[in-house]
Design goal:
This protein is α/β, with parallel strands linked by helices. Helices cover 44% and strands 17% of the residues. The strands form two sheets. It has a six-stranded mixed beta sheet, with helices on both faces. Strands 7-6-8-5-9 form a five-stranded mixed beta sheet, sandwiched between helices. The longest helix is centred in the last third of the chain and has 22 residues. The radius of gyration is 20 Å and the shape is globular.
Length: 325
């Protein structure tokens, strides 16, 4: 895919040209029956938790149920394709995971192009990943990790939730920018990856804050740094990787998308209500507890984020020769 940065308007513009009266009628009546929110990962995943959180808010505000339906598999592609092929009427939404940015490069033969065939609706949250180690590893900072890895080539491994996931790509970017040469060990989800990291079967992780923070607070893992450019209030005193490796940034972000052609008034309505939800104290507290930062903004803002991240991680994947499972 070339120049995805220029294509974000495909995501932001979403609505097909409709007569003004038709658009007004849709705005007056939407939603008139339950809305599906497709999630490409299993129940209990970060994407699922966020889909249910925002779905409950939208249900309360718009008077119809926003029902999460899990369609796990292929890095979220099964759910994404189902959404893209659905009628663009606002009754099928997709909870966008960070894997969307990697899938275009990981899966070159998909039946869709997300940047072209989906409409960005609203950002929800950006969650830092955490550079963390098993406490038995004799390192307490990122400089110490880099030095230890270089002094012990090939001996350190990092876990991920799977090939092409945010935790994998964060580790790969760390290798590329530091020369640490940590060996990648993919798992099928954060759960089993965390189990082996805590047990010492692997030594290093770059998992999401959501998956990590409970284990860090319990002393089962040692946090070295967060992967966002700014420090996280959820882990006060923990530096960023970028303070040692200038320009390093890797995070997990989530939002809502709909099929291309979804009417602009419906996109605007869901965007407005989602932004309102992100300001609600109860939802804000939930996101804060996850270490998350609200992604408020317009559909165009979220579309640009998807396009920028697709370009960034596509290059990392191609340069490293990463292939889907």
């Amino acid at each position: 895919m070339t120049l995805p940065r220029r294509k974000f308007l495909h995501l932001a513009a979403g609505a097909a040209a409709l007569p003004a009266i038709s658009r007004i009628a849709r705005a007056d009546t939407y939603p008139s029956h339950p809305v599906r929110v497709l999630v490409g990962f299993a129940a209990g995943s970060t994407t699922d938790i966020l889909g249910r959180l925002i779905g409950q808010w939208l249900s309360q505000q718009l008077g119809q149920q926003f029902v999460v339906e899990n369609r796990p598999g292929a890095g979220g592609n099964i759910a994404a394709e189902e959404m893209i092929k659905s009628t663009p009427d606002g009754y099928t939404l997709y909870m966008v995971p960070p894997a969307v940015a990697a899938n275009a490069a990981l899966y070159p033969h998909l039946n869709f192009v997300f940047l072209r065939d989906a409409t960005a609706v609203a950002g929800v949250v950006r969650v830092p990943n955490v550079a963390e180690v098993n406490p038995s590893l004799p390192v307490k900072t990122i400089p110490e990790l880099i030095a230890y890895a270089k002094a012990n080539p090939g001996k350190l491994s990092f876990e991920s939730a799977g090939i092409g996931t945010a935790s994998h790509l964060a580790g790969q970017l760390f290798n590329a920018m530091t020369g640490a040469n940590l060996q990648h060990v993919p798992y099928r989800g954060d759960g089993p990856a965390m189990v082996d990291l805590i047990a010492g079967q692997v030594q290093v992780g770059f998992a999401t804050m959501t998956a990590s923070i409970g284990h860090i607070r319990a002393g089962q893992l040692r946090a070295l740094a967060v992967t966002t450019l700014k420090r996280s209030d959820a882990l006060p005193g923990v530096p960023t990787v970028a303070e040692t490796v200038p320009g390093f940034e890797a995070s997990s972000w989530f939002g809502i998308a709909a099929p291309k052609g979804t009417p602009a008034d419906i996109v605007a309505l869901i965007n407005r209500e989602t932004n309102a939800g992100l300001a609600d104290p109860t939802i804000k507290a939930r996101l804060d507890d996850m270490g998350g930062m609200a992604l408020t903004g317009s559909p165009a803002d979220f579309g640009k984020l998807i396009a920028d991240e697709t370009e960034k991680w596509g290059k990392v994947i191609r340069d490293a020769g990463i292939k889907a499972e």
